[in-house]
From TrEMBL:
Native source species: Planococcus shenhongbingii
Designated name of the protein: Methylmalonyl Co-A mutase-associated GTPase MeaB
InterPro entries named in the record: GTPase_ArgK, P-loop_NTPase
Alphabetized NCBIfam families for the sequence: lao (TIGR00750), PRK09435.1 (NF006958)
Record keywords: Hydrolase
Molecular function in Gene Ontology: hydrolase activity
């Protein structure tokens, strides 16, 4: 009897709990609200010189997410009135020339003079994995800690010539953030140098002391891109050889077309190790700026850069839209196989594709 009563009480308790659950109103699921993108906050942060906000803005521009791309372009549009007030310097050099060491010493000198320096280091991305080294902050530890400097490694992501397609926009963001000297470091002597030449005011080529075979192997086209040639590692034990190399380059420059209208390409010795010749390079840069601005070519070059940027973006957009179509991608693969099997010539395949 006791067991029967206990069982009845348990069942009544279960039923009461169930009825209570049924009576309780169901909570409606609410989709979390998406916070509106705050352009003003990020733009103000960039304008105030915050490296954190500048990094966020650059990441937004580099993102492949469509929403992020739209936000990035709107942000850039708001900041455009505050851009253009810097000198943009491209820096390249043969392997082992000491580009990173030179940039660090050069950048530190500029910050000591009161300038704010941004370093955009074009980083090689792997053609197999898509990964990049992104080691510039470890190579320029002292400059990376400098509050007046900003270092941004920029992966190439397979872009033609090794230059990330957002480098130009990153330069504008850095200018809006108050950086008045922009240094663009390239991976080495090659096709990327031509593209960087098209986005900077002055192009500087670092070479080693003791020209010899290096002069013979140096492409004429690279020398014709340079507004200044710095014979680097002109250390005390190497001074005579460095001065000899400078004279040899000056002789060669007489026979080459000048890179900038109204400016004679300079050749100078320098040692980052002993910090000699660095201030002379900056004096040369200022002389270049004064000379080219007086001639009116500074404005023309900037306009040409914008025009080239516009046209290159057209090409990028056409390629992107072309390969976005699944059916077109399938047709490309099919025609590619026909070309590989010698069923079609390349020209026939292209005609077929665009019909």
């Amino acid at each position: 009897m006791d067991r029967e009563m206990e069982s009845r009480r348990v069942m009544e308790g279960v039923k009461a709990a169930h009825d209570g659950m049924q009576a309780a109103p169901r909570k409606k699921f609410r989709k979390p609200q998406t916070k509106a993108f705050d352009y003003e906050e990020l733009a103000e942060g960039v304008r105030s010189g915050s490296r954190l906000h500048l990094g966020k803005a650059i990441t937004l521009l580099e993102s492949s997410n469509p929403d992020h791309k739209q936000h990035g372009q709107e942000l850039l549009n708001r900041l455009l009135p505050f851009t253009g007030n810097s000198i943009r310097i491209g820096i390249t050099g043969v392997p082992g020339a000491g580009k990173s060491t030179f940039i660090e010493i050069f950048g530190e000198m500029l910050t000591n003079l009161g300038h704010r320096v941004a370093v955009l280091a074009i980083d090689p991305s792997s053609s197999i994995t898509g990964g990049s080294i992104l080691g510039d902050k470890t190579r320029m530890e002292s400059l990376a800690r400098n509050p007046k400097a900003f270092i941004r490694p920029s992966p190439t992501a397979g872009t033609l010539g090794g230059v990330h397609k957002k480098t130009r926009e990153t330069m504008l963001l850095c200018e809006a953030a108050g950086y008045d000297v922009i240094l663009v470091e390239t991976v080495g002597v090659g096709q990327s140098e031509t593209l960087v030449r098209g986005m900077v005011d002055l192009f500087l080529l670092l070479v080693l002391t003791g020209a010899g075979d290096e002069l013979q192997g140096m492409k004429k086209g690279i020398l014709e891109l340079a507004d200044a040639i710095v014979v680097h590692k002109a250390d005390s034990h190497n001074t005579d050889l460095a001065n000899k190399t400078v004279r040899e380059y000056k002789q060669i420059l007489h026979f080459l077309q000048q890179a900038t209208e109204g400016w004679k390409t300079q050749a100078l010795p320098a040692s980052s190790l002993e910090r000699t010749g660095i201030s002379e390079i900056w004096a040369m840069v200022k002389d270049f700026e004064d000379t080219v601005k007086k001639s009116g070519y500074w404005k023309i070059r900037r306009q040409n850069q914008t025009k080239d940027w516009f046209r290159s973006m057209i090409t990028d957009e056409l390629l992107s839209r072309f390969f976005d179509d699944q059916a077109r991608r399938e047709k490309v693969k099919m025609l590619e196989q026909k070309v590989l099997q010698d069923d079609l010539t390349v020209s026939q395949a292209i005609s077929n594709l665009f019909e």
